Amino acid sequence: MVQLKLTDEATNRDDMRDGFCCDRNNPHSCCHREEDSRSHHSNLHKSSDWKLADDPSCNPEHPLKVTFEEITSAAYRIKPGIVNTPCTRSHMSGLTGMDIYLKKDFLQNTGSFKERGARYAMLMLSQERRQKGVIAASLGNHAQAVCYHGHLLKIPVTVVMPIIAPIMKIQKCKEFNANVIMEGKDMAEARKIAIKLAKEKGFTYINGYDHPQIIAGQGTIALEILEQVQDIDAIVVPTGGGGLLAGVAVAVKTLNPEIKIIGVESERCASFTMAMKSERPVSTPIEGTLADGLAVPMVGYNAWETAKSLVDKMVVVKEEWIAVAILRMVELEKCVVEGAGAVGLAAILAGQLDEFKGKRVVLILSGGNIDTTILGRCLERGLAADGRLVKCKVTVSDRPGGISELCKIISSIGVSIKDVIHERAWVTSDVFSVEVKVVCETRDYTHSLELRDLLMNRYKKVKFDNLPENLAVSSTNEN
Ligand SMILES: Cc1ncc(COP(=O)(O)O)c(C=O)c1O
């Protein structure tokens, strides 16, 4: 049933591994029993200073399957503190040929679904554990969720955020009076620091995607979706460490096994797809991605164990489609969604889910926390990927009026110039020419092609960066 789209080999780096340790028969006890778990798993991964056994919520050798009952229990407990977010029909149904519904969980207080699991895990702490406090390592959304619900539940919170975490997410955590430690170059390092601190200070470490209660909490989103939308054919789930995917898959397949569960990752951090390929969690090299919330090098063991047999398909999307999806969300839905939250739409726009044309598909818009500057860049990239922001180099006459004529020609078809740079020193053809680099905004791709043809008919040397060359156009012109 599972379709894989990537063929790259995963690399296996022990130092990047993520792991947990749990009482298999009693998931709710797992975060209260570090000492037992540690000794139980003391033989694991001896060589690494980041010992897997130090995260008490998981045991890679005995991973846990989260059950439907835990998800319903989580739903009941977190209900008063979580927003039942709308799941509404998308304006993009016509555009995509699918009956799309959007579960808008970016409307949670801290802008992501992560509050569900965070609240549940904290509600399940013993009084003693609550007093000592919790610690999490996160690139942002889990950290914000833990900080916010810790604040509401009066539980002291420490979060370790890698230095690459988005500024906006760091700032938000500070606003909830949490102890924010910015350390570690990536999640692996941040987690190592958090686990060490948990040990030293007696905090409870809450893994953001693999703690069984986190997975159960994330699954509650599916219970809401199934109440909000009838006759669903597929649910598309952004996937990082796999906690959301696992929780959703259990809830949905228990209630209606006919509904397809589709996980989506960025091509830059396809760790669940790699796990599917290797039939176990493996460490996967990750690169900078617009979907920063999904940048997890290895899926969680509990998440994997829970989700592996329930996921129908994994899709890996290209970065440019994520940018286009963010743009479409802003333009057509008036929703600001971060890259991680937009991957589902990206997969549809890229034609990777065409088998659902004419079907009813729910996209989980899992988060909306995006820095304004990054949003600006995403929108520009989206416009460029869409062929609506084009860049060209045109060599024109350096006599008076040469550049102004170029600008007039461009504006004659309603194209707007965003930027112009001209240079003389490096033009090799003749001293009476100048090379002009122009960035233009057009209505759509066809409009861009019209611009290209117009310029190629008028000038000899024209080069567009992001449009194909039009060989049919004659270039018998003067410049
Ligand atoms: C906005 C957003 N969407 C999706 C995910 C993926 O969730 P998981 O790590 O449980 O797979 C994350 C994880 O942080 C996220 O922040």
Task: Report on this structure.
This is L-serine deaminase. Residues 78-367 form the Tryptophan synthase beta chain-like PALP domain. The structure is a single chain. This protein is of the alpha/beta class. Helix content is 39%, strand content 16%. The chain has 17 helices and 14 strands. It has helices spanning 34-40, 68-78, 93-96, 114-123, 127-132, 141-153, 167-175, 187-201, 212-228, 243-255, 271-278, 301-307, 319-333, 339-349, 372-385, 402-412, 445-458; strands at residues 87-89, 99-104, 134-137, 157-161, 179-182, 204-205, 234-238, 260-266, 313-317, 360-365, 389-397, 416-423, 433-441, 462-464. The strands form three sheets. It has a six-stranded mixed sheet with strand order 1-2-10-7-8-9, with helices on both faces. A four-stranded parallel sheet has the order 5-4-3-6, with helices on both faces. The longest helix is centred in the middle third of the chain and has 17 residues, at 212-228. The model is unreliable at 1-53 and 473-479 (pLDDT under 50). The structure holds pyridoxal-5'-phosphate. Pyridoxal-5'-phosphate binds next to helix 6, helix 10 and helix 14. Residues 112, 114, 141-142, 209, 218, 238-245, 293-294, 296, 338, 340-341, 366-367 line the site of pyridoxal-5'-phosphate.
Major β-sheet profile: 6 strands, mixed
Extended strand count? 14
CATH architecture of the largest domain: 3-Layer(aba) Sandwich
Q: What is the CATH first-level class name of the largest domain? A: Alpha Beta
Kindly name the structural category: alpha/beta
Q: What's the CATH topology label of the largest domain?
A: Rossmann fold
Name the helicity range: 25-40%
Total individual domains: 2
User: What would the principal axes of the Cα set say about the shape?
Assistant: elongated
Strand-residue fraction?
15-25%
